[in-house]
Design a protein that fits this description.
Helix content: 25-40%
CATH topology of the largest domain: Dihydrodipicolinate Reductase, domain 2
Strand order of the largest sheet: 4-7-6-5
CATH class of the largest domain: Alpha Beta
Number of helices: 8
Structural class: alpha/beta
């Protein structure tokens, strides 16, 4: 299923699959055991809610939603349904993460630090903060998930950001860099540094 007819026809021919350009029609007509949602982040919520309406298990790439209101809508709708579901935070399933969590389980962590440094996305749709949510939502969300998994829930957040260093990137609407401070429920302090300016010379 793809909203671009040429793309979906090409894939259908290569895989002998039925082509669809509307995910609702596809779900209504086919008998799926589960659905894998790998659409742009700004439509994840509508994809998820339709799966819930159809009582379909699903895997969704992170993030679940683009904002708190949508996330709360999803959480409220799926609560108590018994529908199998998961979000693509695969890093927490690493053996190294399990070991780190074990080592820290008997310790009081007083400070945590995380960094995500990368280049401006090469995929046009991800350059748009409106489509993908920006670097924190699209990429560094993995680090936030790990911090919550290893240390505990976050109770307060403050973020500052800068923009405007890449005027030549006409499709780019995200933050060039950001700094975030966390306060965890157990008293731990933490920070998260992000930038898309690490490899400005990378070839497209």
């Amino acid at each position: 299923c793809d909203i671009v007819p040429a793309a979906v026809e090409k894939t259908a021919k290569e895989t002998s699959a039925k082509p669809y350009t509307d995910f609702r029609k596809m779900i209504d007509k086919e008998n799926f055991d589960a659905v894998w949602i790998c659409t742009p982040a700004n439509v994840h919520t509508q994809n998820i809610l339709y799966c819930i309406d159809k009582n379909l298990p699903f895997f969704v790439e992170k993030p679940v939603s683009m904002n708190e209101e949508e996330a709360e809508t999803v959480a409220a709708k799926i609560k108590g349904t018994g529908i199998y579901h998961t979000v693509g935070y695969q890093r927490r399933y690493s053996p190294a993460v399990d070991k780190l969590k074990e080592l820290l389980s008997s310790e009081q962590v007083i400070f945590s630090a995380a960094e995500h440094f990368w280049t401006i996305p090469l995929v046009d749709s991800i350059k748009s903060k409106e489509n993908a949510g920006g670097q924190i939502v699209d990429q560094a969300t993995h680090l936030i998930d790990l911090l919550r998994y290893i240390i505990g829930e976050i109770i307060s957040v403050y973020t500052t950001r800068v923009r405007g260093f890449f005027p030549e990137e006409k499709l780019y609407t995200g933050d060039d860099a950001s700094g975030t401070i966390f306060e965890f429920e157990n008293g731990t302090a933490g920070n998260l540094l992000c930038t898309y300016a690490l490899f400005p010379e990378i070839e497209k």
